[in-house]
Amino acid sequence: MRLLVIVAIVAAAPAYADDTIADARRLEASLEYEQGLAMVERVIAHGDASPDQLAELHLLAGRLAAGLDRSAVAEDHFARSLAIRPDATLPAGTSPKLTAPFEAGRARSAMLSVTVTLGSDAVSYAPHDPLGLIVGIELEIEVAGKRSVIRDAHALRIELPAGASVIEERGLDGAGNRAWVHRSVEPPVVIVVPPPIARREAPSLFARWPTWAIAGGVALVAGGVSAWRFTVDQNEWNRLRGEDGTHDFSQLQALEARGRQWGIAADVGFGVAGAFAIAGVIAWLTHRDEPSVLVSPSGISVRF
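and the corresponding structure tokens:
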């Protein structure tokens, strides 16, 4: 397979092509058509011209050939120029000697376009090109952050190195000029993300110290009531015991059992109140006022 890897990116518009165009125009103005045509065709045959340069070189060659009465050569050059640059024109008042082959070239020509099939391992071209201008491929690629150029001047399919991304596609004519260029990669889109918006996340019910304070207060009141009832029953039992022989023993047993229940309830109430008090202190010490959630436009929440 004919494949050339060029480490440095090739310049798309050599300066000597522009110099040649300027020199050929001076020769045309001095009616030195033969010398001017030979110069222009030599630059076209050398290759390496950009699409704009190539279109201008063919247009200039067509004018010079028409000046030498070489209508067929002029028509071919005009057709190629118009395929690359369909809006090309001749100056108003140009002699029919030039306009006739120019219009004949326009009738033969169609705007050059290429359908590119980009696969994971190869690129293929399908030119829409009645003149058969495009015969080869040149690609500017990037592999692992490094750019280079690969080309096959005689094929419409070229294999890609592993991991390559295509930056620019170029269609080559038979001499290696770039008759068609398409940039595959557009400038990167920069997404500006606004700063995260702080939003306070309310602590859960059990993380709030007032919850434990209220619960502790209720338990303390319950324990206090139970202790009071225990004291009342204890005093009543003591009074009945002091009146020995005047009361039934079952009455003392009932008071004792009830007093024991109130005592247990008081112990439980005070114990629970103490536990709730500890929990309330912990909740109060660990309570924070700063936001606990950051909400960003991307929808990501970060807890800290």
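(Above: one complete record from the training split.) Residues 131 and 202 are 74 Å apart (CA to CA).
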